[in-house]
Amino acid sequence: MSVSGTSTPGEARLIDGKGFANRLTQDIAEDVRTFYARHQVTPGLAVVLVGNDPASEVYVRNKALQTHRAGMRSFMHMLPETTSQEELLALIGRLNVDPEIHGILVQLPLPGGLDPVAVTNAIDPRKDVDGLGVVNAGRLALGLPGIVPCTPLGCLLLLKSYVGDLRGLNAMVVGASNLVGRPMAQLLLREGCTVTVAHIDTRNPQALARQADILVVATGCSGLVTGEWIKPGATVIDVGISRVRLDNGKTRLVGDVVFDEARRIAGQITPVPGGVGPMTIACLLRNTMQAARELVEGAGGGV
Ligand SMILES: Nc1nc(=O)c2c([nH]1)NC[C@@H]1CN(c3ccc(C(=O)N[C@@H](CCC(=O)O)C(=O)O)cc3)C=[N+]21
Predict the structure, then answer these.
(1) When you count CB atoms within 10 A of the terminal residue's CB, does the N or C end of the chain come out lower?
(2) Distance from the CA of 271 to the center of ligand 1, in angstroms?
(3) Which residue intervals of the chain bear CATH 3.40.50.720?
(4) Where on this chain does NADP(+) bind (predicted)?
(5) C-alpha dist (Å) from residue 277 to 16, 63, 150, 272, 283
(6) What averages of pLDDT result for each successive group of 10 residues across the chain (303 residues)?
(7) Which residues does ligand 1 sit against, CB inside 6 Å?
(8) In what order do the strands lie in the sheet with 103-106?
């Protein structure tokens, strides 16, 4: 490991998101037991899924499984595609005042006709474990404690563990979504990085990426980032996850980065699957534990 954020090229070290997420989940399970002993309260997470997108159903089921592994309670709300905005807002209103619920997540994207901004902001900011509402997003932008979106938080925990001190490093975030790119850029800025955000209108993103000690890619565009984008020895975090069909008819998960090229140039890199995905879920549990603490103990804090 190197504190400069780069190391000698050759074969990149694999960043083991799955192993890290497993250890994090075990630590959270310990926190859940301690919290129960103190307050006789078990943290509860409500996950709301509208419609039946098969990929979303897989993630939602995985979330419920991991929630139970951490000793938390999981409340699933599977709503039909035809759910109205009023019905969805009414459900969130009930979850907001339910003392058994400490975290609420509405799986995105929502079916057409439902307004994700209105829905996200209907969640009590104290229960907004996705950190996507204006209160938590604003807190992050101002450098105040709050709930940080799960995927960027997971990426940051990996970076802090595998790179160390990020101060002064050049970081580039490819993708400017509210879910990942923007909050990721805010977190890296807070850690002292010099941050560049590339988006759909960015000219020559490849040249900018080649300057980056840390490259976080979150576009959902598989194969976008080739070897030529990568500074030798850089740390590459691949947030993308797409299912592609192979010649033999089977499907495979791939990221936004051409892994076999990148791994010969990067210093360290996250695989897909087994990289950022499991960290997202572990951080959701971490945020739910944090929300339960603040709701029950009235403690401030956060990351
Ligand atoms: N409000 C909201 N918050 C989210 O955090 C959110 C969302 N909506 N909508 C969908 C995306 C996607 N997402 C993933 C979570 C875990 C894996 C994951 O565990 N992936 C495994 C593989 C899973 C598999 O085999 O399909 C891995 O990368 O190793 C992937 C993707 C969270 N999202």
Answers:
(1) N
(2) 14
(3) 149-278
(4) 175-177, 200, 241
(5) 11, 11, 10, 8, 10
(6) 53 98 98 98 98 88 96 97 97 98 96 96 98 98 97 98 98 98 98 98 98 98 98 98 94 97 98 98 98 90 58
(7) 58-59, 62, 105-108, 130, 150-151, 241, 253, 272-274, 277-278, 280-281
(8) 73-79, 44-50, 103-106
